Automatic annotation (TrEMBL), chain A:
It comes from Breoghania corrubedonensis. Residues 30-396 form the Leucine-binding protein domain. Keywords: Signal. This is Amino acid/amide ABC transporter substrate-binding protein (HAAT family). InterPro entries: Leu-bd (IPR028081), Peripla_BP_I (IPR028082). It comes from the Bacteria. Pfam families: Peripla_BP_6 (PF13458).
TrEMBL record, chain B:
One of its GO terms (biological process) is amino acid transport. GO terms for molecular function: transmembrane transporter activity. The keyword Transmembrane helix applies. InterPro entries: ABC_transp_permease, BCAA_transport_permease. This is Amino acid/amide ABC transporter membrane protein 1 (HAAT family).
Length: 440, 317
């Protein structure tokens, strides 16, 4: 009898509770879910990014009272970098009226791309996900600023060409590509193969299975045998530090070892210590603490004890990347407020806001991000911006800026992106026609 | 095609003998490390017939305890002793909370219990130590770092990492120690009796509970050694848990109950997958290492189903 009563009581409480949580977000706030991973094999990369994103929003709420006077209501959904869990996160936050989704995984992004236009929620996959999603005509709800993986791959080839005396210098060179054997790592292969044909270099691939991330000795033995002139890495999580260590083990020339921006965590390079000196990665956010925005985060959030970041890891490269990502979301909202004239904007407003977003030098300075980032402008046609990048080099203890900002090979990449978008439409038929007008 | 499969790999081996030596060395080190992981599985299976699904997370948990304590200011050697103590406590808890209540239950129930333990330890480990990877305190533990290069021929080079040499030495000492423990001590003989027949062992006064706690403790120490060695090669993170399943083909090959089988199986898999990946992998675009080990093990099973050193069980009707 007691059990029955208890069960009835519990059931009543659950039903009552479900009604109690049913109301949507408070009207004076804007809901932004953050898909993060603080657990699992990719937590080493996921934690600093999650901290950076959270702290930027916390700083905006503390310092400015939110965006345009409206508080940002943000929370994390743990995906473990697992596509299935990511889709569950997407489905669970949908009912709370999110203004934008940031999947933080190429695998999750690929799954939610078809859902975005149905649910009418913009997806911001910052410098990851499907490269072809930069084509706004085909993917009106997807944004992948500030660069696609294809921009990144072309930028690395461009930098190698610079060191070899021009694009002609690439002829006959051997370039190795070591990558996480998943959607993320496979994404730039078509572009690299295309560039290899075009400029006459040989590309050798070294796939690393997810479950073998910490067991790469075979791949690096192959690298030692093949003696590539340069190595490019598309690594994530535990793959990065292992690769850096293995490269030092075979005494690979570290200044010829490039990583995409996601291989540029401090812990990734620190695994190789001083021996990893010279290892370089692409970057699109500032390194270090010497920016007003980072100082404001320190003042309003970290020093106030409201951050989860360990003091020693504050303003690490991936932390700053998280700050950059949160800034893109915040600017999308701010742009939406200006565009719509409303304070509490909707997902559709933010889609428009992202499409008209123009982060010029003045706005960058106003945000306290001078030299932290390059100007960025998106449009109805271009949902990426294809912004300039720069190289950071590991000095044995920290990342240092090496050289100036430079443009990716957009002229080469753009036609390929358009062709890839057309191909996507064909292979995912019937792909819906764009049904939202261009935001202007 | 036939040339690529049957001739070219051997031509490559002959053309670059230094590289072949390097491949064999890497295969040896990988084999030793796989054997260490397999050893943890074998110890528990021998004593209780349980396939310990939690062995992988025990590797992570042991290594994280060591590094985590050191991060909180505990000197390296004291942290090592405390980590061993924590594994002892874990063994005691597992015996009291998991094994004892499930005695005489079907083996599948015990397997499920170890799966449950895995997820508990993942959550508990992340709660206590956080999800961020940590660097192994290799130098603080007095383990050697750096490498030595040997000139072979005019241009050849064989590079031996000192930590890999240390891993091999430690693994050999551990195996020898476990061998002596199981064959020459009273507890070791009791464990073998338990492995042969639980009820017969109980009838002669052997305490099953005590044996289980000791075996789980021994598996915990093996897990700690494995965690230190693997952690030194990359870092200590929850990704290491997956690496434990590299021991599965080793167990298929060596048998689930044989310590020498774990060692020989580990070495066969280590050599086999490295040579296969380097010399035959490029024929199919590489990346064959993860499944080649299973192919080697399955081919072996065709000829010896009980594994290399496993006990041949003949049941007569």
């Amino acid at each position: 009898m007691k059990t029955t009563l208890l069960a009835t009581g519990l059931a009543t409480a659950v039903i009552a509770g479900s009604f109690a949580v049913a109301p949507a977000q408070a009207e004076d706030s804007i809901y932004v879910p953050l898909f993060t991973y603080r657990t699992g094999p990719y937590a080493g990369s996921g934690i600093p990014i999650a901290n950076g994103m959270e702290d930027y929003f916390a700083m905006l709420n503390e310092r400015d009272g939110g965006i345009g006077g409206v508080k940002i209501d943000y929370d994390e959904c743990e995906t473990g970098y697992n596509t299935q869990k990511g889709v569950e996160c997407y489905e669970s936050v949908k009912a709370k009226n999110p203004v934008v989704i940031t999947p933080y995984s190429t695998g999750i992004t690929l799954q939610v791309i078809p859902k975005a236009s149905v649910d009418r929620i913009p997806v911001l996959s910052m410098a990851y996900g499907l490269s072809a999603a930069a084509i706004g005509k085909t993917f009106p709800w997807i944004f992948n600023a500030p660069d696609t993986y294809w921009d990144g791959a072309s930028a690395i080839i461009k930098d190698i060409a610079r060191r070899e005396g021009g694009l002609d210098g690439l002829k006959g060179k051997k370039i190795g590509y070591i990558f996480l054997d998943a959607g993320y790592g496979r994404e730039p292969i078509p572009l690299l193969e295309d560039l290899a044909k075009k400029y006459g270099f040989e590309m050798t691939q070294y796939p690393v299975a997810g479950k073998e991330m910490q067991n790469q000795s075979s791949q690096w033995l192959n690298v030692r045998r093949d003696r590539p002139d340069y190595m490019i890495m598309w690594g994530w999580g535990a793959m990065n530090p292992t690769a850096v260590k293995e490269a030092t083990k075979i005494r690979y020339s570290m200044d010829k070892f490039y990583g995409v921006w996601w291989s540029g965590g401090n812990d990734d390079a620190a695994a190789g210590g001083m021996a990893a000196k010279g290892f370089r990665t692409l970057n699109f956010n500032g390194v270090g603490k010497d920016y007003p925005v980072i100082q404001d985060i320190k003042k309003y959030v970290v020093d106030a004890g409201k951050s989860q970041v360990e003091p020693a890891k504050f303003a690490d490269n991936l932390y700053n990347r998280g700050v950059y990502n949160a800034m893109l979301i915040a600017e999308g909202i701010r742009s939406a407020q200006e565009h719509s004239g409303k304070k509490v904007v909707t997902a559709e407003d933010v889609r428009n806001g992202l499409e008209v977003m123009n982060l010029d030098e003045k706005r960058i300075a106003d945000m306290g991000m001078k030299d932290f980032m390059a100007p960025l402008k998106m449009s109805c046609e271009d949902h990426n911006g294809h912004g300039p990048l720069y190289i950071v080099e590991w000095d044995g203890k920290d990342w240092q800026k090496s050289g100036e900002w430079f443009e990716p090979m957009t002229d080469v990449v753009q036609p390929l992106l358009e062709a890839a978008a057309d191909e996507y439409v064909k292979s995912n038929a019937p792909w819906p026609e764009r049904d939202v007008p261009c935001a202007k | 095609m036939l040339y690529d499969i049957f001739v070219d790999p051997f031509v490559q081996m002959a053309a670059q003998p230094d590289f072949l030596l390097q491949v064999l060395w890497e295969g040896f080190v990988a084999g030793i490390l796989y054997a260490l992981i397999a050893l943890g599985f074998v110890l528990i299976f021998k004593a209780s017939g349980v396939f310990n699904f939690a062995q992988g997370i025990m590797v992570v948990f042991a290594a994280l305890t060591l590094v985590g304590l050191h991060e909180h200011g505990v000197p390296a050697y004291l942290a090592l002793i405390l980590a061993i103590a924590v594994m002892g406590l874990l063994a005691y808890t597992v015996e009291r909370v998991v094994m004892r209540p499930l005695v005489n239950q079907p083996e599948i129930i015990l397997l499920m219990a170890t799966i449950g333990m895995t997820y508990f330890l993942v959550g508990f480990g992340e709660f206590v130590f956080g999800g961020e990877p940590k660097s192994m305190i290799t130098e603080e533990l007095g383990l050697p770092t750096g490498s030595t290069a040997f000139q072979i021929g005019e241009r050849g080079l064989l590079i031996l990492q000192h930590i890999d040499i240390a891993a091999a030495v430690i693994a050999i000492i551990m195996v020898a120690g476990l061998g002596i423990f199981f064959n020459k001590t009273r507890i070791g003989r009791a464990l073998r009796a338990v492995a042969d027949d639980h009820q017969a062992a109980l009838s002669v006064g052997i305490s099953l509970n005590q044996i289980w706690a000791i075996v789980w403790f021994a598996a915990g120490i093996v897990a700690l050694a494995t965690g230190i060695m693997w952690g030194a090669r990359s870092d200590v993170s929850f990704a290491l848990e997956i690496i434990a399943f590299k021991a599965l083909p080793v167990l298929i090959l060596g048998g689930f109950t044989s310590i020498p089988g774990a060692i020989v199986g580990g070495l066969v898999i280590g050599f086999g997958e490295k040579i296969g990946e380097i010399y035959w992998g490029p024929l199919v675009g590489g990346g064959i290492e993860s499944w080649l080990a299973y192919i080697i093990a399955l081919i072996f099973l065709l000829f010896r189903p009980q594994g290399m050193f496993g006990e041949r069980i003949i049941e007569r009707v």
